[in-house]
Amino acid sequence: MLKEKVSSLIASTDLTNIWSQLQTPIRVIGVLIGVIVVLKVYGGIIGTIESMPLVSGLLELVGLIWFSSFLLSNLLRSSDRSKMIEQLRSRWKNITGS
Predict the structure, then answer these.
(1) pLDDT of residue 12
(2) Would you call 38 helix, strand, or coil by DSSP?
(3) pLDDT tens track, the chain, 98 positions
(4) What contacts 50, CB < 8 A, 6 or more positions away?
(5) Structural domains of the chain, count
(6) What's the pLDDT score for residue 1?
(7) Do residues 59 and 49 lie in contact, with contact meaning Cβ atoms separated by under 8 Å?
(8) Residue 13 confidence (pLDDT)
(9) CB atoms within 10 A of CB 50
(10) What distances in angstroms separate CA 77 from CA 71, 73, 91, one per listed residue?
(11) From CA 56, how far away is CA 48, in angstroms rounded?
(12) CA nearest to 77, candidates 85, 66, 65, 89
């Protein structure tokens, strides 16, 4: 009985039509699984780095030094601030398309 239903389903429908309908949901599920795997691996790497006593403090120091350097080179003078604000506005227009 089940075998007859499956046979009639396969015979009555076009498999390429079914595949074209299911292609997008299969891709979405694949992307979601990929994102979950990447986030798990990334979380493991970050957890490992955080567990090392010296590395986390060193990375914070590097971030602070980079941020200070950025502030001094881009935000200290008015002309540099204006240039950076204009670049940000230009990028925002490119992103939003307005």
Answers:
(1) 62
(2) helix
(3) 778 877 776 666 676 777 777 788 899 999 999 999 999 999 999 899 888 888 888 989 999 999 999 999 888 888 989 999 999 999 999 999 87
(4) 56
(5) 1
(6) 74
(7) yes
(8) 63
(9) 11
(10) 10, 8, 21
(11) 10
(12) 85
- Residue range of the domain that includes 88: 2-96
Q: Burial, 84: exposed, middle or buried (Cβ in 10 Å; 0-12, 13-18, 19+)? A: middle
Which amino acid is residue 27, in one-letter code?
Answer: R
Locate tokens 């992103």: which residue? 95
pLDDT of residue 92: 94
Counting every residue, how long is the chain?
98
Q: Which residue has the tokens 């493991």?
A: 44
